[in-house]
Amino acid sequence: MSQFTITIVGAGVIGASLGLALKQKGDSLRLIAHDKDLEHAKAAVKMGAFDKAEWNLINACDQADLIILAIPLSGIRFTLEAIAGDLKQNVVISDTTTSKTTVLAWADDLLPEHAHYVGGYPLVHPGGTGYQHARADLFRGKLYCLTPSSSANEQAVQLIADIVALLEANPFFLDPAELDGLTSATEHLPSLLSIALIQTLAQQKSWREQRKLAGRLFEQVTAGAIGDPDSLRDSFLDNSLALSRWLERLIAHLQQLQTLIAAGHESGEALAQLIDQAVVERTNWLIDVEKGQFSDPELASPKVENPGFLQQMIGFGAFRRRGSNPSKK
Q: Both 183 and 253 in a single domain?
């Protein structure tokens, strides 16, 4: 039986978790890891996430049937430029970043006609960023956003949807611009809040003493100030219009709270109502997260049986693009 080769670029928590989850699906899948830190890729192999670690990016990708870029946004364009001239016929490429409009534009501009790009973004909350925090069940029961471009090949989209099914996640199809607008509120806005809070306190003379008292709540609220600074910057700027609008609304609510607090006890009832609304909304959201109640039955993708999927993968290289994209190079 021939093997279907999947290369995952980036052996961090997302890349290694993808490897662990897919390795459980049988010997028909051959998984290769590439990471800018070769030792991270080797460690992910040792933990059972991959069959091989490849230090050379081109060698890792030139024979792959599927390439998943599990790296920060700041590394996507460089990686696409580097591998574009050495891709296998009808390779499918995906990613795991939030800025889909930008990434899909890069893919359309840089990739050859015989490569097929389908954007991806798993809605997961790992316990850390390194491979040490990887789990095979990280995606189980979670939404996995898929953002095909208007020119995406139908079979390439189906392959990525099947991969999501193998991860035991739930595919959630969105327009790239729509996903960018939504994640501006749920991902980038919290990061900006974290940065603003850290800056507000750290620039005060009292910070030297305050930081001794910072506990779990402070850690949670500032958790968005983590990761690759260049990627965070690029994400903010790539979604500047939507993010600016969300910041305006947030500032308005902060000003409302400021007014109520400055008024003292006479505004106590109004302040309590605002707090109660927020507590109820958060509680209901956490219940939905715990029960996985986000899937819309009308949008749910059909279940994919593993044997049929593997047969489809093995014969996948024979497909051809149904329509040409004149903007492709």
A: yes
Q: What amino acid is encoded at 64 in this protein? A: A
Mean pLDDT over residues 307-319, rounded?
46
Amino acid (1-letter code) at residue 25: K
Residue 275 has pLDDT above 90, yes or no: yes
Give the domain CATH number at 213: 1.10.3660.10
Local structure of residue 114 (DSSP, 8 states): T
Cβ proximity of 144 and 171 under 8 Å? yes
Q: Which domain holds residue 310?
A: 4-174+297-318
Q: 32 with 54: CB under 8 angstroms?
A: yes
Terminal-residue alpha carbon distance, the chain: 34
Asked if residue 162 and residue 92 are part of one domain, the reply reads: yes
Q: Judge whether residue 311 has pLDDT over 90.
A: no
Coil, helix or strand at residue 52? strand
Residues 81 and 151 grouped into a single domain:
yes
Do residue 116 and residue 139 come from a single domain? Answer: yes
Instruction: Kindly report the number of other CB atoms within 10 A of residue 183's CB atom.
Output: 23
Stretch 168-178: mean pLDDT? 91
How many other C-beta atoms lie within 10 A of the C-beta of residue 126?
Answer: 16
**Beta partners for residue 29, in sequence order:** 4
Which residue, among 45, 5, 11, has the nearest Cα to 27 in the 3D structure?
A: 5
